[in-house]
Amino acid sequence: MKEKKLPIEDKRIYEIKIRLNREEKHKLDQVLTDCRTHAPDVFRRLLMKNNFPKAKSPMLDINTYYELRKIGVNVNQYVKAVHQSKIKEMDIAVLNELNSLLKIIRSRIISR
Asked: Whole-prediction pTM value?
């Protein structure tokens, strides 16, 4: 697909290079990680709007990741046991536990 041509006044034709010390570079890296963006976007935002882009909050917190990990471990253990013919089907109690963990995680995701 052919790109749409920008008017000459909208083209970015100027390049600016800056030098940062270690502390400044570390702070810039933190901002880029928090905002999930690139340095030119941060600089343009500072120049044009005089503010930093807002940091994007993660969809899941640490506890939710922990709950997901528990679910994954349980499922993997049961799948391995099924493949090794140690069990024929999953226990109802385990299925109920997995279902309750999924409900907790779903509620945390929706509440964000």
From this structure: 0.41
